[in-house]
Specification:
41% helix; binds potassium ion; 7-stranded parallel sheet; Rossmann fold; 18 strands; UDP-N-acetylmuramoyl-L-alanine:D-glutamate ligase; elongated; binds ligand NAX; alpha/beta
Length: 525
């Protein structure tokens, strides 16, 4: 599924209107009808609604919704802004005024009567450029989150970044909330990143007939794009991923078995391990690489720690890797197709082995200690290449790219605010490798500008010791199978979250790899 920036959305809308196939008021009618339809599905019995209409086209949608709910038997109260909302919204306001008054959008007017069964937040959408202020902010603060239906987004959310303008990025005290958010055509990054999933509630994406124009924009390269960037692909959202037919067939295709299969045709992955007493992380990664279907997996600790790896799984091969020459010698075997370095490795050992690992040109996952080593030595970063996947969490990202992390930390005063998507893309372009910025809202960015967002806010128990090690192993295993680095990272985050979802609270990282067979069977891989 494509994700569109707000600039892309505006450009597609204006392309559609320029084509003459559809007018602005028609688009607004479709958008309003989509929201009204979702309200009637969720609240089948007509009740009372308060509709808040802002100063632009989001407000225009609100007037359409008000009229349609009224026609459906709802008792509707409308609070709106004075001033010129633009021709389309003005037309919708005029139509509503034939049915009922527009009260001022003030706390006094809002509190003069009970809000009713639902409040429709049609104040700001994709046009938000600064924090809501004065009376509008006061009204928004009064909304009862559990009964709010948001048009495009809860007002105040920056749809390019998932941050609330004017507020610190972390912490959710007093934030706007909706029970249901109906957005148009495609999700925007802000629906999936940061606070977006929490404030939007259930997200419904309504088709308003812009498909032909979106596809034109999506097909072109960066130069053809409204905002000069290639399109984004949402690889999964919590509500749809496991059941989504397209996502399933995509995963299946990535993991398609070769026939006739031989263990080497499924690839050989090398998981470098740390010294005595530090082998657990690499073993988790190795187990995950085996479970995702790498034909062979070798764990490579220093010789003194080899004995620690004598236990199961017996499918795992062991070979001592003491220093860079040992690694180079192993990599002389062309069948060794992917490397994972970092989990439990130790920073010094990672730094010593990285030049050989990177110099081989093999697909390589850099995680944990390898990222710390990389942050400490700029020369190491020079060896990165397009088949490397860096898997930093926020803290590791800040060590690697302190300037980008600082931009992300600043309180966003104006929209569009800097997003995790922006900084991951810039990081990927800068280091020439795939960057997987991990979190509940993971972003995968490729140096050429392609990116994916994977929102897994519904599996908080995934944030546990060793979880990242198993993720690194999944990526290495998929790359050993010949999956492209970017797709391997995408596949791994999906399978990782699916496994966590199926395990539930109480998950420990050891459970994740062993859940893979059931998950893979479920997607028919
Ligand atoms: N782009 C599309 O394809 C479509 C857009 N539609 C609606 O149009 C919306 C976007 O409309 P607009 O571009 O008019 O923008 P909004 O309606 O989101 O915002 C209105 C205007 O308020 C001003 N503004 C921004 N932040 C403010 C603040 N903090 N305080 C006061 N004023 C502020 C800006 O000038 C902005 O243009 C979408 O969210 C959606 O609801 C739909 O009607 C149909 C399709
Ligand atoms: K809104």
């Amino acid at each position: 599924m494509e994700i569109l920036s707000t600039a892309q959305m505006r450009a597609i809308e204006s392309e559609a209107m320029t084509s003459g196939a559809i007018t602005g008021p028609q688009l607004m009618e479709r958008a309003g009808a989509a929201v009204a339809g979702q309200i009637r599905l969720a609240w089948p019995k007509a009740g009372r609604a308060t509709v808040l209409c802002g100063p632009g086209n989001n407000g225009g949608d609100g007037y359409v919704i008000a009229l349609l709910l009224r026609r459906a038997g709802w008792r509707v109260r409308v609070l709106g802004c004075d001033g010129d909302p633009g021709p389309d919204a003005a037309e919708m306001r005029r139509r509503w005024r034939q049915a009922g008054p527009v009260l001022p959008l003030t706390p006094q007017a809002f509190l003069a009567a009970p809000p009713g069964d639902i409040c429709v937040d049609a104040v700001f959408g994709t046009g938000l450029t600064r924090p809501p202020a004065r009376e509008i902010a006061q009204v928004l603060a009064l909304l009862p989150g559990e009964d709010v239906v948001a048009v495009d987004c809860p007002s105040g959310l920056c749809l390019d970044s998932g941050v609330l303008l004017g507020r610190p990025r972390a912490g959710d005290a007093g934030m706007p909330r909706a029970r249901l958010t109906v957005a148009f055509d495609s999700p925007k990054p802000g629906h999936l990143l940061g606070l977006g999933p929490a404030v939007c509630g259930r997200l419904v994406i309504a088709d308003i007939g812009l498909g032909p124009w979106r596809q034109t924009a999506a097909r072109g390269g960066p130069e053809d794009r409204p905002d000069g960037r290639p399109g984004l692909v949402a690889i999964a959202q919590p509500a749809t991923a496991p059941r989504d037919g397209a996502a399933r067939s995509g995963l299946r295709a990535l993991l398609a078995k070769h026939s006739p299969a031989h263990k080497f045709s499924h690839g050989h992955a090398l998981i470098l391990a740390g010294g005595v007493g530090a082998g657990g992380a690499a073993r988790l990664a190795a187990r995950a690489a085996l479970r995702i279907g790498a034909g062979l997996v070798t764990i490579g600790p220093p010789a003194e720690a080899l004995a620690e790896h004598a236990g199961p799984p017996d499918a795992l091969m062991r070979r001592a890797v003491d220093a860079a020459p040992d690694l180079s010698a192993m990599l002389g075997d062309a069948r060794l197709r992917a490397i994972c370095i970092g989990p439990g490795c130790g920073t010094r050992r990672a730094a010593a082995l990285l030049p050989a690992a990177l110099g081989s040109g093999r697909p390589c996952v850099l995680d944990a200690d390898a990222l710390t080593a990389l942050a400490a030595d700029a020369d190491l970063a020079a060896g990165l290449h397009a088949a490397c996947v860096l898997t930093p969490h926020a803290g590791e990202f800040a060590r690697l790219f302190p300037d980008l992390a600082a931009r992300l930390d600043a309180v966003p005063a104006r929209g569009p605010a800097v997003s995790r998507l922006d900084v991951a893309r810039e990081a990927a372009a800068r280091c020439g490798a795939v960057v997987l910025l991990k979190g509940p809202d993971s972003v995968i960015a490729v140096p050429d500008g392609r990116a994916m967002i994977h929102s897994a806010v519904d599996v908080p128990w995934l944030a546990t010791a060793g979880s990242g090690d198993s993720l690194a192993g999944l990526i290495a295993g998929a790359m050993a199978r010949g999956v492209a680095p970017c797709d391997a990272a995408g596949l791994a985050v999906i399978l990782h979250a699916m496994a966590a979802r199926s395990i539930g609270a109480g998950l420990i990282a050891d459970d994740i790899p062993d859940r893979l067979p059931a998950i893979l069977r479920g997607i028919g891989a």
